[in-house]
Each structure stands twice: as C-alpha cells, then as structure tokens.
C-alpha cells in the first residue's frame, strides 16, 4: 500500500509500505479520510517518541475490507470510524472504567500504524459504525468526542458565561457543544481573525483578538469585573494557560483541554488566583469512559446523524495522501491560516 511514513523528525514521505495483516480479532479499514490533529504537528516536527518508521494519523474513518474470524461486531463493507486508543483492559484505571487514564494503552497513529495510509489494521472492538455520516465528518468524531469529554467533566450550567481561550478546531467544537447544552454567552479568544470569524458564525457573543486587545482586561469589562463562570483552555499556549486563571470568577472553574507544548511559569497574580478565588481546575485527556469507548463517542455520532453539529465547515484544507509532505509544509510555513486539514487517500 501507499502511506505517509515518518522516518525521523520532520521526515515524512509518501512511499510504499507493507500491507497490514488482519488478526483474528482485527479488521482492516480502507481509509477514506484522516484529519491532522493539533498534537500531530509537534510530534512530527519536533519530538516523535515512538518507534520508527511510523505512520501517524489517529482521526480517521473508512470502510471495512477484511475481518478476522472472531470479529463479530462488524461486517464487510461497513462504514466505520476508528477509536484510536487501544486500552489494556487490565490496569486499575481500565477496570474502573477510566479508559482515558489507562496505564498501558497503545495509540493508533503513534505506537501503532495510523491513518495516513490506504489501509489500517484496527482491533474490531475499536470501530463504530457511522451509518450515512460522510467520511470527512466521521474523521472528526475523535476531536468532537475530546471536546465533549471536557464539557461533561466540567459540568457547565444553563446560563453560564464561558470563555474559550483558543478558537481553533478544538475551541470551535467546544463552542458547538456549549450551545447544545444551553450555554449561549460565549466569549471567544484567539490571535487569528479567520478563527474568530468562524467562532462568531458558531454563536460566540463576543470575540477578542489577543493581538489587538488584552483578553484579561476585555473579559473583565464584559463581565463587569466578575470574570467568567468557566474557562476552557483549548490553545495549549503558555499565555492562555495563565490567562485562564485570571479571567475566571471567584469559585469559577477552569477546564484545561489544550496540550502543553512547553514549560509554564505563572505570575504571582495568576497563581494566587487559584486559591484566592478558590478556583476549580480540571484537566481532560482523550475522550473515553465506560462502557468503552464511552458516551462521548456515541453522543457525538448521534448528534452528527441528526445534523445538530457542523463539522464540514471546519475543514480549511484537503490534501491527497500523496501530498502529505505539502500538508506538513503548510503548517511549517505559517504563510496562511488553517483550521482542520484533511488527508484523503484515493
């Protein structure tokens, strides 16, 4: 088969690769669409920590073209989404249903070969039928479930005022879930005009360009110096990680969803906000709960089937698999804004 194979830091090539071999409990998926996750870029470009050569890509959907004799939950030709986390099902966290916190998990697109390929081997327990959901939208079910995992965990209330720090794909998905949950007073923060325009189209009541105005000052004005009820940190930036503590009201809550890309040194004021305002800080990792893969995945699929979530409009670029190098270079160059980038094997 053809695949986008990573041989070293920033060395990804479109090349021939061995076809996957189907085990008795596995299926082989012909990949129809695979999104590039925000976590893929730093791993590919800076610090890949898994075995090489590797095939990245964990947000993918496709069609089952082979199945093992013990794979009884799916049929040949089923349209499916892949659940990338392969849990051990033995550790204390798995036994407690906390699959996101599995001590010994493997991840498709990292430890295991992923979706930047024509075909992928996946455990049959890690596929879910998608019905008539289009393949590109289905490839975004994983980040949609990640966003919902954070929403369900922080428990917003109807009428809350919420700040979303970082209005990229993850922030946009959080905003859509918030609106579904009855949260309409949303303040979106970003440094990209395009992303803020998208946030506005998704229902953000106020949009703050952090290149032009201080979000802490602006949110203070918008909330009459009280601060927001909940802040969702979705950028993974040291700046927004600190600002999240400053814009949240007393007894408020902060949900950290963005991946940390570097160390963070908090100012005295930011750190003291944690205890002086008695903030609740919670982090959310992955998207899984019991029964595996969890309500985050099944609800995401249900809402997509009922056209209550808009994913297609979040895609800014599409590349054929043969152009995987160009897709990565788009991110490196920083010559244009991008949102969700989709890789499409033929």
UniProtKB/TrEMBL annotation:
User: Which molecular-function annotations from GO does this UniProt entry contain?
Assistant: L-threonine 3-dehydrogenase activity; zinc ion binding
Q: Which InterPro entries match?
A: ADH-like_C, ADH-like_N, ADH_Zn_CS, ER, GroES-like_sf, NAD(P)-bd_dom_sf, Zn_alcohol_dh
User: Which keywords appear in this protein's UniProt record, sorted alphabetically?
Assistant: Metal-binding, Oxidoreductase, Zinc
Q: Which Pfam families match?
A: ADH_N, ADH_zinc_N
Required cofactors, per record? Answer: Zn(2+)
Q: Which domain of life is it from?
A: Bacteria
Its EC number is: 1.1.1.103
Species: Tepidanaerobacter acetatoxydans (strain DSM 21804 / JCM 16047 / Re1)
Record domain Enoyl reductase (ER): where: 8-343
Would I find NADP among this entry's keywords?
A: no
Name of the featured protein: L-threonine 3-dehydrogenase
Family named by the database record: Belongs to the zinc-containing alcohol dehydrogenase family.
